[in-house]
Design a protein that fits this description.
By secondary structure, this protein is an alpha/beta fold. It has 14 helices and 12 strands. The strands form 3 sheets. The chain has an 8-stranded parallel beta sheet. The chain has a two-stranded antiparallel ribbon with strand order 1-2. A two-stranded antiparallel ribbon has the order 6-7.
């Protein structure tokens, strides 16, 4: 049985699946992506994270459509899982990313996502990224309005600092259930946000748990501590990192991206990895690499 963690009034799997890589990476294999989603469902994963902006530049909703189509092809999957999507990013030509946190955009984006996903209301709708052109409280007011109108059931925020999270807590109220920020062995700048999540009973969804798509493959060589712990237990470096994250906080839910079923199954195996005190001391002491001055 997959352990669970709280997402507001829901219990979801302690490990989620980030769907971005199903459509974002070059040379996408859609058949393999469907197999990856099915492997996640079979492993007991019940939280799937997507966004309207994930996919080729200039086209919205690509990733949402790919994810929900894969779930529809698995018997009863849609009855067992929670699809979390995000709005507030837009895509331009040449792979550019823009931000639009205006109430009008968020309202239209939420309705479009619900339609693409075939849902009467979005189980978890996340504000993708603060927009410097729009007061954050105004964006949060729009998210609260979506709840009041029945378009959204629960609200999440993403890529926020502690002050922005305080604003979200004040404006959105009890409909706010989660934060999604980057967090990994080498990226812990969101520790103050994680502590706020613990204090307020919010789930912390950790994106980029391996340090990013490029870093994931090199975990065993970039950190001798990770390699040592992996060798001790006879597991992959990725499992070590996920097990460390799961021990980091009871509200933290890693959402590693995957486009291969083998990767999904390896990640799910991290739930059975028990790190001892020596392992944790080694991993806690890992420091981010120094950035040279430019």
């Amino acid at each position: 049985m997959m352990p669970t963690r709280a997402l507001g009034d829901l219990e979801v799997s302690a490990l989620g699946m980030g769907a971005m890589t199903l459509t974002q990476v070059p040379g996408v294999d859609s058949v393999r992506g469907i197999r990856a989603v099915h492997a996640a469902v079979d492993a007991g994963i019940t939280l799937f994270d997507t966004a309207d902006s994930y996919g080729p530049s200039g086209e919205m909703g690509v990733n949402e459509r790919a994810l929900v189509e894969a779930l529809r092809r698995h018997p009863s999957a849609l009855d067992r899982v929670v699809i979390a999507t995000k709005g507030g990013h837009t895509r331009g030509p040449a792979a550019t990313w823009w931000v639009d946190g205006s109430p009008g955009h968020l309202a239209a984006a939420a309705r479009a996502s619900a339609q693409r996903l075939g849902l009467d209301a979005l189980p978890l709708y996340q504000h993708h990224r603060p927009d410097v052109k729009v007061p954050f409280a105004e964006s949060m007011g729009a998210m609260r309005q979506l709840v009041d109108e029945g378009i959204v059931v629960r609200v999440g925020v993403s890529n926020v600092d502690a002050a922005q999270l305080d604003t979200a807590i004040r404006v959105v109220g009890d409909a706010l259930v989660s934060v999604q920020n980057e967090y990994s062995l080498l990226e812990r700048s969101s520790d103050p946000v994680l502590q706020l999540c613990e204090a307020h009973g919010l789930a912390f969804l950790a994106w980029g748990p391996f340090g990013g798509m490029r870093a994931a493959k090199g975990l065993g060589t970039s950190s001798s501590s990770v390699a040592l712990v992996a060798e001790r237990h006879g597991v992959s470096p990725q499992q070590v990192v996920l097990a460390w994250l799961l021990r980091r906080s009871p509200v933290l839910i890693p959402i590693p991206g995957a486009s291969r079923p083998e990767s999904v199954r390896d990640s799910a195996a991290a739930l059975g990895l028990v790190l001892d005190d020596d392992d944790l001391r080694l991993l806690d002491a890992v420091a981010a690499p120094a950035v040279s001055a430019q």
